[in-house]
TrEMBL record:
Record family assignment: Belongs to the peptidase S41A family.
Source species: Bizionia argentinensis JUB59
GO cellular component: outer membrane-bounded periplasmic space
InterPro entries for this protein: ClpP/crotonase-like_dom_sf, PDZ, PDZ_sf, Peptidase_S41A, Tail-specific_protease
Swiss-Prot/TrEMBL GO biological process terms: proteolysis; signal transduction
Protein name per UniProt: S41 family peptidase
Length: 529
């Protein structure tokens, strides 16, 4: 019998004990100053873990046992209470804060060398003259090229405390010797607004990918620019947006609702209700707003859509949203790790909860997407299952439903011409992105004649370009990937990816939106209102 199998019962016993211990620590009926007080039961478990640490015959990683236990506890609560290990905290925190400290480049490992795709707009790297195609050879004298360097190793060399400097040696084609750049690290934004531009002379477009700390400021900045361009009505694209901070979603909603309109209310286990109302500060209260949602719009995205729909404000366009009506709060566990624990439910202004059931366990909960797909709901709104018991009425008499996502006012079916396994594989595998990068490497001046506007409007991907992509695929994978039936869609993705590597943010969305059926529907709605 292996040692692992021999001591499995012991490990499980420790895990259960640790679970009870942690559960005792998270007793929220206590006041905060008593939350972590001890009693004999907790002390007994503390001693057990200490005995194992110091006296047990074999080395046992009790930290990993506790980590596993925390995850098992949370899995049995609800699908959205999660544990964040210490190793992941910095990345998670940076993503939700909306920035990190670094030099500001997007890069691609090309032939075991870090090659710059693009220096981010306004970043320290752009300011010193680093540009697309540059190969970073050393950082502060240390080599960072070769197959043994992982992305995390490289990022560790480039990131650091704010205002510190890193000296980079860079190889650039057509330069006789290595170039040396000294770059001062600074805050680098992680944009949550992917794109903001005018769809036509009066209709603006903003796409938000998550609700981070920086999202409201980003949104206001882009809205101010759009106003100067003559925006009258707005498309707010929340498709694929998984959510984020509830308070940020409230601020976004406040831009569209008049003073004292109810945005949402939350209720915790003790029945305490907290209501959130709009203020006078909204800058877009009188114009039309179209909110785009789909089956992957969740949480804070649903708060925005639900608040506007229940106040008879704007038009919700797309497909039924994800169905997450739970609110989490992040709590430090004292060792650098944290737990995001569900602490309340939120309700839209009419009083509906849009949380779908998780009574059959997490697997069934996450498999709900496939059930919707197989039922035909993504193609036919009549296939959406609703319960009369969860029927609510808005102030103007519109019927809305709770119990599993926001049902849009205007349904737009899934576009099967671009939503299929082949295109999803090509997109997620990174093949298109790496192909475009290598094509640009051949001649980075080939597109100098195009301005961003000209490229998006006039550039066409040739059949020869697509054939080159097929040859590239054949050289990189043995899988038989055929996209004959989706040739035009592949051309669109190639052009969009090319635009994203050539130009600043939003270029990819501008290209893809040219053929987006939901965008076309909104433009038609806006012009015929």
């Amino acid at each position: 019998m292996s040692i692992k199998k021999k001591y499995l019962p012991l490990f499980l016993g420790i895990a259960i004990a640790a679970g009870i211990f942690i559960g005792g620590k998270l007793n929220f009926s206590d006041k905060s100053d008593r939350l972590f007080t001890t009693n004999s039961k907790k002390e007994k478990l503390n001693r057990l873990i200490d005995y194992i640490d110091y006296e047990y015959v074999d080395d046992v990683n009790t930290d990993s046992i506790v980590d596993v236990t925390v995850n098992r506890i949370l899995e049995n609560l609800d699908p959205h209470s999660v544990y964040i290990p210490k190793a992941d905290m910095q990345r998670v925190s940076e993503n939700m804060k909306g920035d990190f400290v670094g030099i500001g480049i997007s890069f691609y490992p090309h032939n075991d060398t870090i090659t710059v795709i693009r220096a981010l707009e306004g970043s320290p790297s752009e300011k010193v003259g680093i540009r697309g195609g540059d190969r970073i050879i050393t950082a502060d004298g240390d080599s960072i090229f070769g197959k043994y360097f992982s992305n995390s190793d490289i990022i560790g060399k480039l990131k650091g405390p704010i205002d510190t400097e890193v000296t980079l040696e860079i190889y650039r084609k057509d330069e006789p010797k290595l170039l040396v750049f000294t770059v001062k690290r600074d805050h680098i934004p992680i944009p949550s607004v992917d794109a903001a531009y005018m769809l036509n002379e009066t209709l603006g477009y903003v796409k938000i990918n998550r609700f981070a700390e920086s999202t409201y400021k980003e949104f206001k900045r882009e809205l101010k620019i759009l106003k100067k361009l003559g925006v009258q009505d707005l498309v707010l694209d929340l498709r694929g947006n998984p959510g984020g901070f509830l308070a940020i979603a409230e601020e976004i909603v406040d831009e569209f609702l008049e003073n004292d309109k109810l945005i949402l209310f939350t209720k915790n286990k003790r029945g305490t209700i907290q209501k959130s109302f709009a203020t006078k500060k909204g800058d877009f209260e009188q114009s039309d707003v179209y909110v785009l949602i789909d089956e992957n719009s969740a949480s804070a995205s649903e708060i925005v859509a639900g608040a506007l729909q229940d106040n008879d404000r704007g038009t919700i366009v797309g497909r039924r949203s994800y169905g997450k009506g739970l609110v989490q709060r992040e709590m430090n566990l004292g060792d650098g790790s944290a737990v995001r624990l569900t602490v309340s439910r939120y309700y839209t202004p009419t009083g509906r909860s849009i949380q779908r059931t998780y009574s059959n366990g997490n697997k069934d909960y996450y498999d709900d997407y496939f059930e919707r797909l197989s039922s035909g709901e993504f193609l036919d709104p009549e296939k959406i299952e609703v319960a009369d018991s969860l029927k609510f009425t808005t102030p103007k008499g519109k019927i809305v439903y709770g119990g599993g996502g926001i049902i849009p006012d205007v349904f737009v079916p899934l576009d099967l011409s671009i939503q299929n396994e082949t295109l999803t594989l090509l997109e997620r595998s990174g093949f298109i992105s790496s192909f475009i990068f290598e094509e640009l490497e051949k001649d980075r001046h080939a597109y100098d004649k195009y301005s961003r506007k000209d490229f998006i409007k006039n550039f066409e991907v040739s059949d020869e370009f697509v054939l080159a992509f097929k040859d590239y695929l054949n050289s990189k994978t043995t899988a038989n990937i055929s996209f004959v039936a989706y040739q035009e869609a592949v051309k669109q993705y190639i052009k969009a990816t090319l635009a994203s590597q050539l130009y600043s943010k939003g270029a990819l969305e501008e290209v893809l939106n040219k053929s987006d059926v939901m965008i076309k529907e909104v433009i038609m709605l806006d012009t015929t209102k």
